[in-house]
Specification:
By secondary structure, the chain is of the alpha+beta class. The chain contains nine helices and four strands, in the order E-H-H-H-H-H-H-H-H-E-E-H-E. It has two domains: about 230 residues, Cation efflux protein transmembrane domain (Alpha-lytic protease prodomain-like); about 70 residues, 2-Layer Sandwich (Alpha-Beta Plaits), CATH 3.30.70.1350. It has a four-stranded mixed β-sheet with strand order 1-4-3-2. Helix 1 packs antiparallel against helix 4 and helix 3 packs antiparallel against helix 7. About 40% of the residues are buried.
Length: about 300
Amino acid sequence: MSGAFSASHSHVFLGEDHAVAERRAWAVIWLCGAMMLLEIVGGLLFGSIALVADGLHMSTHAGALLLAALAYSYARKHANDPRFTFGTGKLGDLAGFTSAVILAMIALLIAYEAARRFASPVPIAFREAIPIAALGLAVNAGSAWLLSGGAHHHDHHDHHDHAHHPHAQRDNNMRAAIVHVMADAAVSILVIVGLLLARGFGWLWMDPLAGLIGAGVIASWAYALVRDTGAILLDMNPDRQLTETLRQEIEADGDRLTDLHVWRLGPGHLGAVLCIVTGKDRRPEDYRAQLRRFPSLSHVTVEVQPSGAR
């Protein structure tokens, strides 16, 4: 005997703040896009290659944010599309993974540029470079503030359930967007410090050193994102502690679990497949009722085998 929650149960596994996060992502794209155009046009008009370069750099982050916003929109529009076996909840993780790869490439480019500057220092136009970095920092701080309003939401689930799997609630699409903005802000801060020290003490090597430190920070963030999103895309067990609790819950009455799979379907949503051997007269519905105290288990499939059966 086997069964899932009901014949026509929902397969919408989007995060509970999906709509808010989507709106915030689009708002930040407009902000970054406007800043990017302002810098590129201003740089071309005033003959500042530094301004044009910063505008082009901003375009890579605007592109990553666009990826996040499109992922939110697509996931929402296709949430009920039957072609997606377990809904579109993982689309944000796919976008986050892609974003992390872009972030790693940006880190490599910054490191390469910094290494080149160490080898052959170039004269720095401090008068225009410092205000540009400060303006970039202001835009990034505003973007991070806008985005993080939707990322750190309060969860209303059973505390016992939530304590087991903090990662199950995490929206990796929003996390990737915030990391992009924070990476840009961190680089802006390092650039400002590097430029001020280079101008004040004539330490031209401070500028490329700041770039190398920035590249290292961004690379470590990119690695963490790739590791976490990759695990979800490969259906790695998101929470071994919860899995063990499920095993104890089922086997407490003398039943035996012969198969148990737990994976993440979307932010705050887990799927589970259980195969139970029992000597009692119990149906899949009985076990599903037993597991309802775990609110994050959004899609449960139970197979029951009598202990005498082979």
